[in-house]
C-alpha cells in the first residue's frame, strides 16, 4: 500500500525566505510523486511531478523538489517566498498504473510580510 | 476554458435529501476520478472510470453513493439520504493515458457540499 506523510500541518516563513515543505512516502513499487497547490475554494493545481529520470524536478512558480529514494522523501523547496505563495500544499504518490493518487494531509504555508 | 468543470460549485441540503453532482472532464481524457476532501485533509480517492467503465471503488464509497459515466464523457456522483458527515468538497479529476501529460491528473474546482 502507498502512503504519504507531510511533516508540519502549518509552516510560516517571511517574504523572501526559503520555503521547505517536507514529504515522505511509502510505496512498494517505483512511485510517481507529485506536489499540488490549492488556493481557497479552488481545485488542485499541479506544481511539479517526478516519474523517472532526473531526481531534481523543477516546477512552476520557482518551486522544485528532489526525489531521494534512500530517504523515501520528496521535499518541496523555493529559494525566496512570495506573498502569493500562501496556500495549501499537498504531496501525493501515484502508482505506475495511474489508477489513483494518494494524498498527504497537506501543509498550509503562511508568508509574512 | 477547456479544463475540468464541476457543477454546482456549492450545494446546501438538508439531512436525508439526495444530491447529484456533475463533472465534465477535459474532452480527450479517458480516465475520470472522484475524490472527497474534508476540512484540513487531503483529497481521498472515491472511485475512477476508464471511459464508461467504473474500475475501482474505495471503501469510503458507501452504498448511498453512486457514480456513473454513461457515455464515457461527463460523470455524475449521487449521494442518497445525505448525512452531516457527507459535508465535504467533492473533487473531480481527469487524465489522459497517452501524450506528454499522461500521468497527470487535472482537477476541477470542486463542489462544496454542506448538509444541515
List strands and helices in order, with pairings:
The complex is a heterodimer of chains A (113) and B (116).
Chain A: E1 3-7, E2 10-14, E3 19-26, E4 32-38, E5 44-50, E6 56-58, E7 64-68, E8 73-78, E9 87-94, E10 101-103, E11 107-112
Parallel strand pairs in A: 2-11
Antiparallel strand pairs in A: 1-3, 3-8, 4-5, 4-9, 6-7, 7-8, 9-10, 9-11
Chain B: E1 5-7, E2 10-13, E3 19-24, E4 31-37, E5 44-50, E6 53-57, E7 65-68, E8 75-79, E9 88-95, E10 106-107, E11 111-115
Parallel strand pairs in B: 2-11
Antiparallel strand pairs in B: 1-3, 3-8, 4-5, 4-9, 5-6, 7-8, 9-10, 9-11
Q: Which labels suit this protein?
A:
A: 113 residues; mainly beta; six-stranded mixed sheet; five-stranded antiparallel sheet; globular; B: 116 residues; seven-stranded mixed sheet; four-stranded antiparallel sheet; 0% helix
- Overall pLDDT of chain B: 92
Number of helices of chain B: 0
How many helices of chain A does DSSP assign?
Answer: 0
Please identify the oligomeric state. Answer: heterodimer
Radius of gyration of chain B: 14 Å
Unreliable residue runs of chain A: none
The portion of residues assigned to helices of chain A is: under 10%
Number of strands of chain B: 11
- Low-confidence segments of chain B, given as residue ranges, are none
**Main beta-sheet strand count, sense and barrel state of chain A:** 6 strands, mixed
State mean pLDDT of chain A (0 to 100 scale).
Answer: 91
The run of helices and strands of chain B is EEEEEEEEEEE
Count all strands of chain A and give the number. Answer: 11
> Roughly how many Å is the radius of gyration of chain A?
13 Å
Largest sheet of chain B: 7 strands, mixed
Strand content of chain B: over 45%
Biggest interface and residues each:
A-B, 25 and 26 residues
Described by the principal axes of the CA atoms, the overall outline of chain B is globular
